[in-house]
Amino acid sequence: MGFSFEKLNVYNKANEFVNDIYLLTKAFPRDEMFSLTSQLRRAAVSIPVNIAEGSARTKKDFNRFIDMARGSIFECVTILRIALEQEYLNQKRYIDLEDKLTNLSKMFSGLKRSISQ
Q1: CB environment 6-37: b (16+ within 10 A), e (fewer)
Q2: CA angle, 101 as apex, 32 and 96 as ends, to 5°?
Q3: Where are the alpha helices (DSSP H) in the chain?
Q4: CATH topology for 4-116?
Q5: How many CA atoms lie within 13 A of 91 on its CB side?
Q6: How much is the pLDDT for 1?
Q7: Which terminus of the chain is more exposed, N or C, with fewer CB under 10 A?
Q8: What is the mean pLDDT of each run of 10 residues along the chain (117 residues)?
Q9: Is there a contact between 69 and 47 (Cβ–Cβ < 8 Å)?
Q10: Which pLDDT score is estimated for 2?
Q11: Is 65 left (phi over 0), alpha (psi -120 to 50) or beta?
Q12: CA dist., res. 20 & res. 109, Å (int)
């Protein structure tokens, strides 16, 4: 852990979420590879990537990157809902992932407050 963003709990939780998504999407139908699978993976990866990139910027810019990461969280929720409706995951797994995203969103709110102080 040589970079400051690697010490952020929200960054590590976001990386864990990415791993969850990669495991989940391995079981998605093959015909979703360039659709839901790709879009969900990209949105999930965008969360920790925005933290890393934003941490190297000014406080104002970092706040903007946090907003983009939160946008990716909302994108993940929407895609997961679609996957649930298509029966690519069960209700229990959906709730577990949605809870993780809710917690990440709350962590971003806290990070934003700490940056603004």
Answers
A1: eebebbeebbebbeebeebbeebeeebeeebb
A2: 75
A3: 9-25, 38-55, 59-85, 91-116
A4: de novo design (two linked rop proteins) (1.20.1440)
A5: 0
A6: 60
A7: C
A8: 89 98 97 95 98 95 96 98 98 99 97 87
A9: yes
A10: 76
A11: alpha
A12: 22
Contacts 24+ apart (CB under 8 A), 97-103: 97/17, 97/20, 97/21, 97/24, 100/13, 100/16, 100/17, 100/20, 101/17, 101/73, 101/76, 101/77, 103/13
Residue with tokens 């969103």: 105
Amino acid occupying residue 22: Y
